[in-house]
Amino acid sequence: MEKSKTHILIFILFLGFIIPSFAQKSETTTEQIFPGIIRERIINKEDKLVINILQIDLKSNRYEIEAMKANNFLKSKETTSEMSKRISNDGHKVIAAINADFWDNDGEIINNMISNGTFIKAIANHSDDKLNRIFSQFALTTNNKPLIEKFNFEGKLFLKNGTIEKVNRINSKTDSSSITLYNFYQGNKTPKIHNGWHEFDVDLQPLAKNSDTLIFIATDKFLNQDQNEIPQNGFVLSASNNIADKLEKEISTGDTVKALLQLFPDEGNIFTLTGGLPQIVLDGKNLAAESDTLEGTKPSFTVTKHPRTGIGFSKDSTMLYFFTVDGRQESSSGMSLKEFANLMIDHSVYQGLNLDGGGSTTMVINGKLVNHPSDITGERPVGSCLLVIMKN
After folding, report:
1. Residues 42, 91: one domain?
2. Could you tell me where the DSSP H helices lie in the chain?
3. Per-residue confidence at 133, pLDDT binned at 50, 70, 90?
4. What is the per-residue pLDDT for 65?
5. Cys bridge to 36: 60, 107, 116, 238, which one at CB 3.0-4.6 A?
6. 146 is a domain residue
7. In which domain, by residue range, is 125 found?
């Protein structure tokens, strides 16, 4: 009997040397940041992963999730930390932030975007997408309902004489014989006129708002005048070529103009909207394997391990989750989209969206950078971010 006990003890000690404990392979810490907001940090030494997860209780109604454009300007870049600090300096209590949509070299985000109920950018589809796809986007309605949908912008102008014209975009690259609306996110002035194009611009000053219908009065009119000033609280309606000829005759100074600016599917008033690519969790199922087909991603993006940023929410839509996974580092190798989707599902995500990752991946909590961005130079300036702000 004593001999058997000795053999068992020796065997247990032997296992202790050859099999690392779970604590040695993976360490998880959790902390409450604010009531209803919990941060989880996972360090998995075996798989070389450093993960940060923020869980936000939406049903508490204590917090707003707001999309923020770098420097409040369409074509600009700013680090997530800088955006968080800037909003904090404006008197808001910013609890956390993550980077959001993909962006071009000049900082313009590639998808639709709404901040505090105001369109920053609206397009019918991604202009470089030959298959005319609409990419997945995350939205939050004014009653705190989270959504992930392929929102498509549709705008209409209702003129005094009963004519209805299509609005093609807001603050995005225009094309011939179309209508674009520009607001202050475009900057102080409209873009330069295309050489050889006939252009007609008119200032629209706001009179009233009824849900997603805006009512304006047409003030100054401009014909082929380069870079007109954009009113702080209104729009410049800019039309080109054939449609410019038509609107020049149909809009007079002092006319009332109504604009219906909608997203489809119509989910009600949207307070926050940001793009991503692709949706990787759909109804609790891992969708990552279908990303290349559904949203035009490539294996180098989906299968290769990269730093990742993502957002998701629970089946009952009451819990929102921010995710960052560090990558391209000795301590953390990153994840494939399939692995990232599984991480979300393991944390009760029912609908999940991948956001801009790679060197952009950033999470800030209480003004402090809590992950390790992969760029040698540190945190990367990005086009936009998502903020968790305490309501006043």
Report:
1. yes
2. 2-18, 22-25, 80-89, 241-250, 291-295, 299-302, 337-346
3. low
4. 98
5. 60
6. yes
7. 29-151+268-280+325-334+363-390
